[in-house]
Amino acid sequence: PVCDIEVPERLSSSYEQLKSYHLVERCVLVPAREGSEEEILLVHRSETYFYHQHLEVAKSTQTMNEEELKRVSGNYDAFFFHPNTYRCARLAVGATLQLVDAVMSGKVCNGMALVRPPGHHSQRNAANGFCLFNNVAIAAEYAKLKYGLQRILIVDWDVHHGQGTQYIFEEDPSVLYFSWHRYEHQEFWPSLKESDHDAVGLGKGKGFNINLPWNKVGMGNSDYLAAFFHVLLPVAFEFDPELVLVSSGYDSGIGDPEGQMNATPEVFAHLTHFLMQLANGKLCVILEGGYHLKSLSESVCMTVKTLLGDPVPQITGEMAPCLSAVESIQNVRAAHKPYWKWLIYEDTSFLQNLSTKSHLLKKANANPSTEQESKMTNNDETVKVERFLELHMKNILFPVPPVKTATTDSKASAHLLPVPLHLVKEMDKTEIKALVSDFYADLVKEDKTWLSLGSMLAILDKILKKEVCNGIVESPTAAVSVAVALRHSVRFGFQRVLCIFIGDMEIIPNTEDGKVLMMHICEKEQSGKTSSKHYISLNWKEDAEGNDFYSAALGFILPVAYSYQPNLTVIAVGPNRSIRISEISLLLALLQGLAESRIFAVMEDTEINLMQSVAKALAGASTPHFGVYVPPTQEKANKIKILRDQFQQEWKMLQCSGKLSI
Ligand code: Q9C
Ligand code: ZN
């Protein structure tokens, strides 16, 4: 039997594409090795015998003739032996473990293993779905044993359910397994009941298996991001893993003949960027599926580029999850409510009548096309997506600014910052004066104010001209500085600016309607200011030790921001901020996925610890830690719910339940 999609070209074309983006030369190359029998047996041992059937059978295929290979392969579902399969599979295991060692020893922060055969369908005692040994599962057991890890997160973004991985860790609370997958009400391979959202784990492992079944094809960027905001990320931050492994199949990307989904390569940059915020950045990405060679290789490149710390491309197009995706998200949240603190006060209930149920009947009645016909249309489709991607990647990729983070040395305090920043000269006084009187006179009333605009304008200019990626500036009058900054940016041609105010500030109403989205995080209710689509006030006061801001950041701020798709983010920290430094760091880390990482921080509160943390977050120099996870109080959870209900029609990434409450 032959397999015409899980082919060696998957690796060679990915590698060629990495070379053409000059990504290979920026990586540390970790040599592969064969995984040892002992390592393979960490997962594939038989519990009752000394004879380890799975390993022995696999080993014996090395010397078989074609007929024997066919016979053995016939014992499995969608697995095909070649005389080299065993050796390749041992290399795939070994390469994966080498990556785990490189990350755990601190030699590298993160990395990707380009291996085949893939692993996530492989079970303790069976090959399955192109997988012989379960590379990622072995890696998790290995990391537990060798490094004493107690919490490992496996994120399986392959379009198929990694049922093998689920079976292996079903009863194990030390490994949290998350998988989304094409399901179509159990119509799609491997067509298992246990791939549905109600398979949450067994025994002690209850709550540590999370399945998000897609009941329709055509899921895209918004659906994947919604799944991260409303399911995976909150759980992941609560779980607080020590290591993150990705079962990284790109058959969930556009053009894949298996997945039939619509997500474009840059979404993988975003998913990667989010996962880099966990486990102190310890992230190992291991290849699984992905059968459209162009889609696969571009997605691999987006992943590696992000692992290397490059800014993330903007997502284009309408940001709204589809109804079926939202329904799936609602059900998995309902299924996991008993197990996770962050869900305690979320109003989640199961949705029984899914909008996709009728689609089953349609499918059964549809005329099956002949194999010849479907091969033809498949080829057409493949070429079409190839052409689309060729153009699309040119459109979304952008030159990385030569400088990451800029500041001015107005008070000679820049040297106190923990990371070397790029120093920019203040704008010249006459120049400011001219600018202000021409365009900003209504905003700048006091004389001493315009004097303080020199640093702000100098840095902002560099960001707008894309000479630097982000910047930090002190300002004794943040509200005025920001008002000027916003109008200046819009005048420069930026169409959507996201502005987040933190603390007590007299917010100057913006006149750039629709081109600015403001969010104000403060303790007191803003009297007289009513929220609207472009002005949202989030009253929040710190009341816990640790960090209880995850629910606001993931459940509200990020979905709104992703719905808006800003091309610049401005953050202003004023007096009496009501969130902690660790919470501001979290926000900064998450928001760097937007606006090609263009962030401008305007600081009125210049407490040294705060300045250091913001500088660190912007420079991306250290791996973040955001303080201990604290679940939101009922009051706070309720606040988020009310805001979500209020805005989910306009900012659709907020949607996480099927039947809208308004
Ligand atoms: N009629 C991975 O992506 N399809 N495996 C079988 C049987 C198997 C995919 C169809 C697809 C396996 C790693
Ligand atoms: Zn797959």
From TrEMBL:
The keyword Hydrolase applies. It is found in: Nucleus. Residues 6-307 form the Histone deacetylase domain. The keyword Nucleus applies. GO terms for molecular function: deacetylase activity; hydrolase activity. PANTHER family: HISTONE DEACETYLASE HDAC1-RELATED, POLYAMINE DEACETYLASE HDAC10. Belongs to the histone deacetylase family. HD type 2 subfamily. This is HDA10 deacetylase. The gene is Hdac10.
